[in-house]
Amino acid sequence: MKALLLENIHPLAVEVLEARGFEVELRTSSLSEDELAAVLPGVHLLGIRSNTTITKRALDNAPDLLAIGCFCIGTNQVDLDTAADRGIAVFNAPYSNTRSVVELVIAEIIALARRLPEKTQRMHDGIWDKSAKGSHEVRGRTLGIVGYGNIGTQLSNLAEALGLRVIFYDTADRLAHGNAQRRATLDELLAEADVVSIHVDGRPGNAGFFGPEQLSKMRPRSLLINASRGMVVDDVALREHILSGHIAGAALDVFPVEPKAQGDEFESALRGLDNVILTPHVGGSTQEAQEEIGYFVATKLAGFARGGSTALNVNLPEAQAPDLVDGFRVSFLQVNVPGVLAGVNQVLAEHGVNVRAQYLSTRGERGYVVTDAEEALPDAVLATLATSPHAVWLRTWSA
Length: 399
Ligand SMILES: NC(=O)c1ccc[n+]([C@@H]2O[C@H](COP(=O)([O-])OP(=O)(O)OC[C@H]3O[C@@H](n4cnc5c(N)ncnc54)[C@H](O)[C@@H]3O)[C@@H](O)[C@H]2O)c1
What we know:
Layout lengths: L1 E4 L5 H9 L3 E4 L6 H7 L5 E4 L7 H5 L6 E4 L9 H6 L3 E3 L6 H16 L2 H9 L17 E5 L3 H12 L3 E5 L11 E2 L3 H7 L2 E4 L13 H6 L4 E5 L8 H9 L3 E6 L23 E3 L8 H21 L20 E8 L4 H11 L4 E9 L2 E8 L5 H8 L4 E8 L1
Helix pairs in contact: 1-11, 5-7
The protein binds nicotinamide-adenine-dinucleotide.
């Protein structure tokens, strides 16, 4: 089987795929729709990052393609519906840069508490301003984490190790880590926190979630950090609160409007303010995150092609089938109509198949069943399933 990896994907991905028996072709750049159409026949796994767009036309010219790995966070560069219609699984790496974001936020909490942005600026301007005024240790201060998911919880652990007291607010029921304490409302958190760090997800309802009202409810001289989504914080209102001195500093990694290309001008109401750290959406951008993404996505692609596991894919039903160590496996993707999964078991039972384990799942218009059996399934069973009117594809493996 052949894997084509575009856009300079981390070499660890090549190692993982070659170790699982794939022939890997590595390219440094992305490909256009026409170029993809020319090279995709004969490719079983395709790896891309955010600069390659996978359109319906590209997929029309990919007769052998089993799966696409987006070696990044987003998947909107892929026509996910068409891929799902063809039974092509799409994987990404939503959590591989969690630690990178958390480390940036930790650095920012300390830098803002010590007013490092303005101190370093003064030094570059040739001004020696040695003073403890407005500088604080973070030990014993209260960090309020808004959105206690993957990033929020890891931040909670690291912040406690630094001696911060952690409180959090989340709309979902999240388990508190370490000594962190839940607050029932955002207002309660804002009334208590010396530093507010926002880590909510990008659901549409979070647009403008943190505006003038929330900023007014923050403690006087508190700090605000947003490394989640640009649309979440009202940057014009934040500017006013910084200029008035109510907010003592802020660190922003994401913005309502971000420049499209490298070198484009960055326009923001937050430029030129004292004790404000602005970074170009680099929270998750580290070499370690790239390596982790390379390993994570390559492992998922191989798991799918070698054993049918769709764990953590974004467009097909999710069945977390472990690697097959012995026996025989059949994976069957079909159109999700009532009774269709039960129908599979009926066929297996009629032919006396001894099922060892089964992983079932549905998502939207598709249903997926992975069946492990002691022995190879009779040809009649495979033929019955593969020719059923609802079949998308059927694949088999033996250990
Ligand atoms: N700056 C970067 O480079 C970078 C890198 C990675 C992730 N991110 C962003 O960081 C954010 C968090 O990522 P994650 O992996 O922790 O996501 P996650 O889905 O694991 O966690 C998000 C949490 O926010 C909670 N939430 C959503 N809306 C809320 C609201 N209005 N009030 C309170 N809680 C709310 C959810 O219940 C969930 O627990 C995402 O927006 C993600 O896109 C940014």
